[in-house]
Amino acid sequence: MDHAAPTRLTVLSGPSGVGKDAVIEVVRKQAPWIWLSVSVTTRRKRDYEVNDKHYHFATRKEFERLIDGGQLLEWAEFAGNLYGTPRGAVEARLQQGIPVLLKIDLQGARQVREAMPEAQLVFLAPPSREELHRRLVGRGTEDADTIRRRLEHADDELAAEKEFDVTVVNDYLERAASELVGLLGSPVLASRT
C-alpha cells in the first residue's frame, strides 16, 4: 500500500535582488495553505516592512540567545547583520502536514541541507546577471557600497546553483510563482494520533 510522502521543507534561495519576496507574495495568493517561515534578523527594519510579517526583528543579544539555546534551524551573518530560522515553528508545521517554505541565503540553505537532508532546495535565478544588476540598483534601498557587496555576493551565489535540487528562473513573476507552488505541493491531510 502506498502512503503519501511526508510533507517536506522547501528552501527558496537566490541572490539578493532576484525577486524572492515578489515571487513569495504571488505564491501566498496562489496557495494560501503554504506556510512561510518568518526569519529572525538583527537588520534594521525598512520602512515598508512589518515586524513578524517580513521578519522577526531582534537585537544581537536576543539573536545570540536563540543560537545558544539551539532554537535556530540555520543562521548566518551577512553585511554585519544576523539572519536565522526558528526551528520549532518549522518542525511543528511539517508534523501537521503543512508545506513549509523558507526564504534564506546560500549559507543558510547549506545548513538546512545538513540539518534536514530531505529538504528540497530551490534556487531562484535571474534571467541574466545584467537583469539582476538592474534590479538591485533600481530598487533604491541600499547605498552604492552595499550594492557593490551584494553584486559580489550574488556572483558567488549564482556559481552555487548546481548545489540546489531545482532552479526556477524569475523571468515572469506569475510563471515563476506557479512553478514554485507546483514544487511545494498540497497539505497532507492525515490524522495522527
Strand content: 15-25%
Strand tally:
9
Strand order in space, largest sheet: 2-7-1-8-9
How does the major sheet shape up?
A: 5 strands, parallel
The H/E string reads EHEEEHEEHEHEHHEH
List low-pLDDT spans: 1-5
N-to-C span: 20 Å
Number of self-contained structural domains? 1
Mean pLDDT: 87
Question: What is the helix fraction of residues, given as a range?
Answer: 25-40%
Number of helical stretches of at least 4 residues: 7
- Tell me the CATH superfamily: P-loop containing nucleotide triphosphate hydrolases
Overall shape: it is globular
Q: Architecture, CATH level 2?
A: 3-Layer(aba) Sandwich
Calculate Rg over CA atoms: 17 Å
State the CATH topology: Rossmann fold
The CATH class is identified as Alpha Beta
Q: Could you say which structural class the secondary elements and strand pairing correspond to?
A: alpha/beta
Structure notes:
- This protein is α/β, with parallel strands linked by helices and about 190 residues long.
- It contains 7 helices and 9 strands; from the N terminus they run βαβββαββαβαβααβα.
- The strands form 2 sheets. The protein has a 5-stranded parallel sheet, sandwiched between helices.
- The model is unreliable at about 1-5 (pLDDT under 50).
